[in-house]
């Protein structure tokens, strides 16, 4: 299925090669579970670690930074592109969620322009093996440390049936009781059941040694660590589920999100209020404010922005959902004053127009350092 040159006991891939043509800049796309498992078995037989980045596509620089980190750390990386229906309630935006497969592939290929770190021969495992440029005859020789897993809905949910209204769904789902019911789970009651279920399926399909998530979705990432711990899972073990810093717009500080594309120009100008509110609360924390005070500070920033919008007659509707300060392990609300030993998160959600945005800051601890180069 693919050939990889072993490099001693470490089995790391060789350094990146420069100056290769578009045929060499080839990322295999795997659609079926059987193909994925055959690919994974060969990687394991060669002793090569695999990193996984679960996504729903509509890639932005935040996703690409996760790819850079994984490719820099491991010989092989799998990025999944799958819009998961079970995390969208019936009234939510499943059909409107952007599907941008071709542009996503272009962005991923752009990361590899200096050349791949390992040689992977597609040998027909991928639909893209048949789409190499005509000027490169012969068997496909896609060379990439990165593989895309883009399964169909039937592959991920072989029992089929109702996949949005989980009260009518037949089949296995995973609910992390006590952790998946608060904050995002309270606002979107089936969201974490859908996320936990699809990520467990992806972990079972790919069997990654490591997985990468962005800090923007902090509750999701922490919940999945807890899930892996509680299920005694080894692919990946909870300590190998990595949380990397949120990637932000350089000018506004807005956390990058696929849903930012829904925002109008006036709404884009208002949206950074969420980070301003969180930063104001974090500054209060630095001055030994209580958790309750931090929430009050954040809500006050949003209220002031609502007043400004009204006074200036802007055509933007700003609706707060929640702000919460919570313990990173238990998700228990924190209302006391800092002790110096606390490891907390302040998170928030609001709507700008019809678009729901989330963000957070970490208090007393940090995400992993994002030690990546622009090119992998």
UniProtKB/TrEMBL annotation:
Pathway: Cofactor biosynthesis; (R)-pantothenate biosynthesis; (R)-pantothenate from (R)-pantoate and beta-alanine: step 1/1. It comes from Cutaneotrichosporon cavernicola. InterPro entries: Pantoate_ligase, Pantoate_ligase_C, Rossmann-like_a/b/a_fold. Keywords: ATP-binding, Ligase, Nucleotide-binding, Pantothenate biosynthesis. HAMAP family: PanC. One of its GO terms (biological process) is pantothenate biosynthetic process. The gene is pan6. PANTHER family: CYTIDYLATE KINASE/PANTOATE-BETA-ALANINE LIGASE, PANTOATE--BETA-ALANINE LIGASE. One of its GO terms (molecular function) is pantoate-beta-alanine ligase activity. Its EC number is 6.3.2.1. The keyword Ligase applies. This is Pantoate--beta-alanine ligase. Belongs to the pantothenate synthetase family. It comes from the Eukaryota.
């Amino acid at each position: 299925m693919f050939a990889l040159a072993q490099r001693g006991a470490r089995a790391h891939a060789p350094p990146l090669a420069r100056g290769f043509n578009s045929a060499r800049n080839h990322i295999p796309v795997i659609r079926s579970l059987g193909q994925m498992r055959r690919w994974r078995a060969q990687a394991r037989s060669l002793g090569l670690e695999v990193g996984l980045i679960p996504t729903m596509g509509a890639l932005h620089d935040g996703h690409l930074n996760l790819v850079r980190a994984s490719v820099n750390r491991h010989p092989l990386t799998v990025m999944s592109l799958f819009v998961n229906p079970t995390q969208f309630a019936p009234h939510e935006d499943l059909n409107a969620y952007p599907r941008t497969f071709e542009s996503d592939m272009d962005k991923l290929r752009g990361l590899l322009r200096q050349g791949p770190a390992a040689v992977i021969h597609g040998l027909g495992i991928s639909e893209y093996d048949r789409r190499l440029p005509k000027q490169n005859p012969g068997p496909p020789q896609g060379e990439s440390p990165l593989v895309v897993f883009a399964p169909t809905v039937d592959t991920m949910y072989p029992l089929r049936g109702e996949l949005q209204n989980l009260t009518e769904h037949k089949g296995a789902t995973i609910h992390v009781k006590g952790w998946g019911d608060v904050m995002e789970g309270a606002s979107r009651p089936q969201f974490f059941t859908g996320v936990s279920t699809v990520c467990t399926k992806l972990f079972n399909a790919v069997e990654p040694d490591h997985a990468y998530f962005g800090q923007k979705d902090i509750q999701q990432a922490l919940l999945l660590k807890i899930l892996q711990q509680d299920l005694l899972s080894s692919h990946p073990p909870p300590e190998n589920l990595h949380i990397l810093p949120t990637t932000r717009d350089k000018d506004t500080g807005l956390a990058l999100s696929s849903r930012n594309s829904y925002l109008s120009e006036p709404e884009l100008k208002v949206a950074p209020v969420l980070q301003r509110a969180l930063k104001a609360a974090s500054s209060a924390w630095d001055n030994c404010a209580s958790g309750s005070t931090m929430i009050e500070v954040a809500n006050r920033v949003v209220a002031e922005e609502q007043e400004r919008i009204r006074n200036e007659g802007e055509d933007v509707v700003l609706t707060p959902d929640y702000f919460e300060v919570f313990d990173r392990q238990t998700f228990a609300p924190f209302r006391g004053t800092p002790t110096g030993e606390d490891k907390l998160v302040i998170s928030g959600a609001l709507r700008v127009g019809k678009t729901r945005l989330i963000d957070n800051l970490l208090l007393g601890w940090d995400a992993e350092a994002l030690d990546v180069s622009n090119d992998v």
